[in-house]
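User: New here, please read:
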Amino acid sequence: MLINTGPYSPGGLCYAEFGARVPKTGSAYLYTYVTVGELWAFITGWNLVLSYIIGTSSVARAWSGTFDELLGKQIGRFFSAYFKMNYSGLAEYPDFFAVFLILLLSGLLSFGVKESAWVNKIFTAINILVLLFVMISGFVKGEIDNWKISEEYLRNRTAVTENRSSYENVTSIYGSGGFMPYGFTGTLAGAATCFYAFVGFDCIATTGEEVKNPQKAIPIGIVVSLLVCFTAYFGVSAALTLMMPYYLLDEKSPLPVAFEYVGWGPAKYLVAVGSLCALSTSLLGSIFPIPRVIYAMAKDGLLFKCLAQINSKTKTPLVATLSSGAVAAVMAFLFDLKALVDMMSIGTLLAYSLVATCVLILRYQPTYEEPKYPPEKAALAAAERESAESESQINMIEENRFRPQALINPSSLPTEQTAAIVNFLVGLLACLICGLSVLITYGIHFIVDLEPWSIGLLALLVISFIVTILLIQRQPQNQQKVAFMVPLLPFLPSFSILVNIYLMVQLSGETWMRFSFWMLFGFLIYFTYGIRHSVEGHRGDGDDDSCSENSGMQEKNPVDDPENANERDQFLPHEKTSEC
């Protein structure tokens, strides 16, 4: 959990800055849209939809597993006997209970946030009480020896499990023991899989239009939720592994089994009820942002327009809520829990990497805001502005010409040239991080053996990575102030991108294959529907028609949305273009 909190704290800070700039529905999708364009925004939004849908499915399956544990696993045995599925990547049996649960909560959310908020508050209160009970009980009944299990003992246990007569030549299937039984590499792989623990904080950013004073409430909410999330998961994980050896933990319902292991049998029912409340809260938190992201994408024309319809009575995106709930139900019905968790992690990691990239790009963009003068200075300011404009036209060609010294000694204020340099350097940084992550993951044995080519390539990538960050740091930043800004730019966003991509590389090949199929399906929708119905695309076509047909006249475009324009005004510079 500590490894996860480190990299995702910068991710949370990046979300907080964007939430302070534009408190509108859409989360990372909107932030990417106004920063790097429509295609990358679609990729971000499509990945967020994936992570939220699969998060809903995985939590529903965990809820079903915990409830089955209370019933003595009767449900699992029944469905395994009569509905067993013998296909790789699919669940052992279809989970009808998880399907029913998702559809029920989707229907609840379709009636509006107010009707579902009080249920969430009750579940959250019970969840906090049970978490405190688990942490206190775990440290009371726990044994520190469970963190000191020897490798010899694990080899012996492996021999017994595999019916071996001797354990001398047996390799332990439970790791090497100790506090980190699977080593640092295994810990990182576990951190990549356990990314779902920190998915929830971005849900706060999707509610910008539903809270008071969002410029302050959203950043504070994101940072506080990160701290609370770390404390809860760290405390429960530590208590759980102290109460029971890690290799005996039940994958589907660990807490009730752990309390039964330490001799507190009756307490397992209390913990199971608390686990169900916690999972119910998590399930609501996973379902809640899905229709809002889908609504934002459909409103911009990237997804089907029917998904942007608002119900007149409940004031919620009814079609988006029910359709996303149906897809999540199908996922929970068919797929294995671990496959779902890995898919959710890879989609969300990519979306968060794009958000951190957008922060880097946005903070180095030039601004063209006109200062406000008192009336007596207005005429003088207008004359100075005309003089500055004529001078800028003379120097435009020279300014746009790239000079190598601009990398080291740029102008004191951001310009189009410095912004273009940062855009190129951020793209180069992403490529270097991908290469470095692949080398460290798949070439670590060559590096350990001190192979000359691997050491040379590693040194080249690391030096290039550091130089690129320093060159970005040399460029002038945007001076516009908002309620919250990411500190230590560009180091924190770069660190977030590095860790996110590295954790993505740790995931299995099967996860990447499933992710590729999802992205291909998304690109099919975008290039056959979204690119032709995009609001931004129609706006660009309208501007071209205005230039050719109505010289000097202001076009009234029916798809222009003043609200969207105001959102983009807070991000993008007001570029000066020549009149038609």
